[in-house]
Amino acid sequence: MDNQYKQELAKTKNILTDIKERGEDAISGTWDELRQELFTPDEIAVSDLRVAMMMELVKARQDH
Fold it and tell me: Model pTM?
């Protein structure tokens, strides 16, 4: 293993330990809250449309 990999692995282990110790307090907010922070309203609308289209395709395939 190279040095950078070992460092990243150690960081990840520390984060996991922190999450285990703090439980739900380590995870803030809901998906909808995070989504509002990360994406613009237009990006959310496009994503929602894409999901609706995929759901319609699944439904159409199940009907046949």
Answer: 0.54
